[in-house]
Amino acid sequence: MDIPTVNFGGTQTIVNVEEACALLRAALTDNDALHIDLMAVTEADLAFAQLIIATRKSTAAAGKALSWRVVPDGPVATVLARAGLDSFNLLDAVMAEGGPQ
Question: What radius of gyration do the chain's Cα atoms show?
Answer without folding.
Answer: 12
